[in-house]
Amino acid sequence: MARKLPPLTTLPAFDAAARHLSFTRAAAELNLTHGAISRAVRNLEEMLGVRLFERGTRSVRLTREGVAYAAEIGAALDRVGIATIAATASRSAGVLNVSTSDGFAGRWLVPRLHRFHRIHREIDVRLSTSGTLTDFIRDGIDIAIRYGEGNYDKVVSELLAEEDVSPVCSPELLKADRPLRSPEDLRHHRLIHDNFRIDWATWHQAAGLYGIDHTAGIKFESAAYAVEAAVQGEGVLLGRSALVSADLAAGRLVRPFDLALKSRWSYYVVYPESALRHQKIRAFRDWLFSEMAAGQ
Asked: Where would one find coiled-coil regions in this protein (predicted)?
């Protein structure tokens, strides 16, 4: 029996427009024009004989029929994407696509990857660094390490490590003309900032420090560069435990004070529900947990 199907090229446009409730954002996601999205949706509506969107001057919203159709089409496209990944898995069996942030990649993952490759010589890790959430199907990502609260939709999210934040610096600063012996001594040293959610103002308040300009110092967008600046003796950084653990163990950094603040965000290993059926993904996931446990 022949299937009754709409023009298949219209479905990704409708799915994106339904998820974003915006033809403009759908066009940006699919690298199409606003007009192309609008035409695809209109063609789909004409074929179905059903209005899927209520169109306003600057907005669109799904009709009741559109809500029901979007749920089914979205789920169907997800299944097609997962089937496509499974069908091509044998061809790229030795390639593992991993996504994480540049800070975690540069200060934790990359320095340890040689140990994974020593065990799994048949797997080639390809690393993508981004601060945005991963679309596993669209981006071709097998597994991700993300920093947040772990509430990611339609994927498995496993807690990898919690994190605390405390001042770190080069051991040379402990022997400087004005050595760091107490938090009050921070007024004589340059502060290093990254774009982390816990900043110097928060730590100063917890330490009972007042009268110190917590906004002064060097600022970095990249956590990896901020850690490297601290290693080079450029100042004192609020170090995130996962990102400075190797430098602390090697003596390149020290914690001059005991006060650490617990972050409400943690590191999570994130992957599609069916991902662990693939040996390469399961091997990398197990290795991540083993490495983190060994470091702690």
From this structure: none
Nearest-angstrom CA–CA distance, 72 and 65 = 11
Q: At what angle do helices 11-20 and 23-30 cross, to 10 degrees?
A: 130
* Fold (topology level) of 164-262: D-Maltodextrin-Binding Protein; domain 2 (3.40.190)
Euclidean distance between CA atoms 172 and 176, whole angstroms: 6
Q: Is-contact 247 253, C-beta < 8 A?
A: yes
What residues does CATH 3.40.190.10 cover in the chain? Answer: 95-161+265-295, 164-262
State the distance between the two ends of the chain, measured CA to CA, in whole angstroms: 59
Q: How far is residue 222 from each of residues 69, 106, 131, 147, measured CA to CA in Å?
A: 42, 10, 10, 14
What pLDDT, in 10s, does the model give residues 221-262? 888 899 999 999 999 999 999 899 889 988 999 999 989 999
Nearest to 148 by CA among 265, 6, 277, 25: 265
Distance CA 256, CA 184 (A): 12
Instruction: Write the pLDDT tens digit of every residue in 40-74.
Output: 999 999 999 999 999 987 788 999 999 999 988 98
Helix, strand, or coil (residue 7): coil
Answer CATH for 95-161+265-295 from 3.10.20.600, 3.40.190.10, 3.40.50.300, 2.40.10.10: 3.40.190.10
Q: Where are the alpha helices (DSSP H) in the chain?
A: 11-20, 23-30, 34-48, 64-88, 102-104, 113-119, 136-139, 200-207, 223-231, 241-250, 279-295
Q: Is the pTM of this model over 0.70?
A: no
